[in-house]
Structure formats: C-alpha cells, structure tokens
Amino acid sequence: xxxxxxxxxxxxxxxxxxxxxxVDGLDLELFRGELFGLLGPNGAGKSTTVRVLIxxxxxxxGNVTVGGYDVARQWQRVKxxxxxxxxRDNHFDEFTGRRNLQIFADLYGAPxxxxxxxxxxxxxxxxxxxxxxxxxxxxxxxxLLARALLHEPPVMYLDEPTANLDVHSSAIVHRxxxxxxxxxxxxxxxxxxxxxxxxxxxRVGILARGKLIALDSxxxxxxxxxxxxxxxxxxxxxxxxxxxxxxxxxxxxxxLTRAGQIGxxxxxxxxxxxxxxxxxxxxxx
Length: 285
Description:
Layout: E1 6-17, E2 20-31, E3 35-39, H1 46-53, E4 61-66, E5 69-70, H2 75-78, E6 82-85, H3 97-108, H4 113-121, H5 137-149, E7 155-159, H6 167-182, E8 186-190, H7 194-200, E9 203-208, E10 211-216, H8 218-225, E11 229-234, E12 239-243, H9 247-258, E13 262-267, H10 272-280
Parallel strand pairs: 3-8, 3-9, 6-7, 7-8
Antiparallel strand pairs: 1-2, 1-4, 4-5, 9-10, 11-12, 11-13
Helix pairs in contact: 3-4, 4-5
C-alpha cells in the first residue's frame, strides 16, 4: 500500500463475558484506502470486535480509535465516520425502499438526492417504490448497503456483505467497496467466502479464541500455506506423492520424468479450509 495512514487503531482490546475473554488483547491497525477482511470461526471474537467499533459493546480493557478519535470517550465524533451493514436486515418493512432511505438520510443529515444516488448504485431504483416486505433477501441486503452509503462515511463495517446475493449482485457490492477504497476510504468486512477475500481484500486478519493468529495479504497467505506437493500417477497406474521441499523426492520425480514413466502430475491447490484448520485448530464455519 502506498499510504500507511492509520484510520482504525485497536490496542490491547479486551472484551469479557463473565470469565470468558471473547477478545483477548487484540492489537490491529487498519489504514486509509484499505479493504480488510476479518476472519475466524464462530466465537473467535470477530463480531465482538465489530460491536466495539460500532458502539454496541464497551471494552473491558485497551482502547480503540477511529480517525484519531477514541471510541469510548469521543463517541459523538466517531459515530458520523462510519456506515454499518449488519448480517441481518432491520428495515421498516411496511415502508418502501425509498422511504427507508429517506428516513436515514434525514437522521444522518445527508441531502435527499443521495437517496436516489444510492438506490442506483445498488441497482434498486426499479424497486424503490415497493414495500420492503416484498423484497427478496438479496434486495434487502443491497438496501442495507445503500443505507450505509448515504452519508458517504470514510469507514465502513460490513458483516457478510454478499450473503444471499447472486453473482451479479455480489459483483456490484465488490465494485462499490473497491471504489470506496480507491477514494481513500477504509472498509472492514467479515466473511466466510474465501473467494471474496482473495478477490477484493488487501489484507486479512484471522482471529481464534480472541487472539490474532495471522495477518497478511491473501496472496502471502496463499504462498505461505500452499502445500508444495504433487500427486503423480505412473504409467502403470501406481500413485505417488512427492514433497517438493525435499531434495531426494525432487530427484526421484526428475528420474521418473526422464524415464518416461509419468502418466499424470497434479499440483495441490491452496485449500483455505485446511489452512484455517491448521492455524486455528477449528473448522471454518
């Protein structure tokens, strides 16, 4: 990344539920112009961390700043800085999509013309005058995104932003998020979709048991954790596996190749679920 200007700083964050530490001394920095993916199994601390960021949960230790403002002590400064897309919709279902956005535009102090602009961005303009109770799950998800965009916040938090969306709608969301980042804004999302992570995230943080256990770009994680093994079928049907990190196995593979005894060779693709299990000891679900 060109700029290392910190937009979100999480320092020693601790959040407890009774004796259980849902977040246990988390240190993390997110930069302006960055799309960051926060991953982890259920109970890892992802949702709790986001709740602290959006003001729904107070920290039991450490501190969090957004745009240089302390979330606990300067909430009125922090609140206008972010838009939030929850994993479950909370619209006024009896109202139209347009009326829903108008209500929030007024709450945010955003100009009314932003309503139609945001409806167009998420391709809901044709459904703008329909009651939200008639929307599909995907349409409701896109309306949440439109709502979060109304006041053009420099920070966005999204929980499973493409759940229930078809391929075309997912592409719309990805485009909007990358445009936000290109404009210098910061996006934090949680997702279980690793294709999504690799497609749009600049960096990824993996949480397990309230602690950060991996932090890097998706490409670096792929390179670090891809198995350097090849599955080989010989001409006589025998199947072998060669570890390319071992000199003797590379030599043996070369010998078989020169002898014309190789029927087929398959490299092992990056398997995030296996990598996740190795890092966390927990299935990704």
